[in-house]
Amino acid sequence: MPRPRKDGLDYFPHDTDAVNDEKIESLRALYGNDGYAFYFIMLERIYRANNQEIDLSDEELRQVYSKKVDVSLEKFDKMLATALKQGCFDKVRYETDGVLTSNGIKKRAAVVTDKREKMRAAYEEKKDSAAETKQKKSRKKAETKKKQSKNESEKKEPAETDLALDHYIGKYKAIYGFEPEISYGRDKKLLKDLIGSHGLERVKRIIDVYLSDNDNFVTEAAHEIPVMKSRVNRYLKQVNQQPMGYGSDFLERQREEKLKAVGADQ
Q1: Degrees (nearest 5) of the Cα angle 159, 148, 160?
Q2: What are the extents of the domains in the chain?
Q3: SS3 of 244, please?
Q4: Cα–chain-centroid distance for residue 59?
Q5: Sequence-separated (6 or more) residues with CB below 8 Å from residue 146
Q6: Most confident region among 66-75, 167-176, 222-231 by mean pLDDT
Q7: Which segments of the chain are extended strands (E)?
């Protein structure tokens, strides 16, 4: 909860040789130290007030202030008249509005209030900056947590591209007895594009059909993934004509036939 806004002042400048000021000397000459006390007590009340002016428009208010100065109302009024005559306060404002103040008082108060406003503005700016920094840290923390969660998820569940590549390598090895040569950057990108267009399960079936293709061009290319990508529409037609599960069974039969063929040649 912010502190309440303060309008009056907690302090005001008091010259160390104020006692020698001609205006104050007049008050002291006529009323002794009561005149000196009157002037500075009234200054204290003025500087504490909003807009640095106090209302003395009726007798009751002056009675209150005379008690603060610890003099009778009669003496208070006499000291007030002298102070106005000597220019300690603005005589015109008192006569027209019944308030006690002066241009000098307001100017000196403005120095303090301007400084206060600058400090308040700097404080608010610092507070806003701190709040913004806190929000940025909070967002960064949330983003880091989200990224960590995503990374953990990716570690737990292989990406579809990796699953497709593992499927290709596994089926290739099952047919030919050794693993294919893989260009991971290139082949994973090609598989990613295919998955984006046809989905993981359909791409797996395309791989199954492709690895069973005995076309000379395909076999000479060692059934590399770029060739599959270039002929994907041909294999896709075959996949669409096959019932689900056809690819894996077909590959198993294909492998058995290759083994039989090898045995017959021997």
Answers
A1: 5
A2: 1-156, 160-265
A3: coil
A4: 58
A5: none
A6: 66-75
A7: 54-55, 99-100
